[in-house]
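Review form for a predicted model. The reviewer records the input and the model, then writes brief findings.
Reviewer: anonymous (R2)
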Amino acid sequence: MQKVQVAMKRGFDIIGSILVLLMLSPFIILVAIAVKIGIRGSVIFKQERVGKNGKLFNIYKFRTMRYDKRLEENQIFSNDEGRINIVGKVLRRLKLDEIPQLINVLKGDMSLVGPRPTVQRQVDKYTDHQKRRLEFRPGITGLAQINGGRRLSWPERIELDIKYIESYRLFMDIKILFKTIFAVLFNKDPK
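Model under review:
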């Protein structure tokens, strides 16, 4: 990617995340109160993820599950559904649990759009081709999320992430963001 494109993408990320945080600030306070009342543990869940060029960072999310120290420290995801209450289900359905990732964007760990960040044990299984996914900052949303998301297999998601990287343009980020908003508001999978 050209240096100009990189600078434009980063500028877009900074301006976009600041504007969204300002617009949503009263709402963020309400969500934080709902999480504190409805779910034990800290309001913000953080977990180590792999970012651009394999750099580790802590991703931030609103907590959607009951706290379980053993499961969280060992990154055991098999019992996640049993730990989610009604507050967590609503936050996940509306993707509101992702709002704190705007702080990750401001810090430079993430971008508004890019491959979703994952944990180290998944990255350790990547082929050389799949490691291309680490060439960009991970995103809050991405090409894979608007084309099936979790319904896609892991290899299909990775291929869409690589396609995004290979054909990146700032206009593509804007298009993906609008399709993400549409998908969240109308519970649709925009194609």
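Findings: The chain has one domain: 3-186.
Further findings: The CA atoms of residues 31 and 96 lie 8 Å apart.
Recommendation: see findings above.
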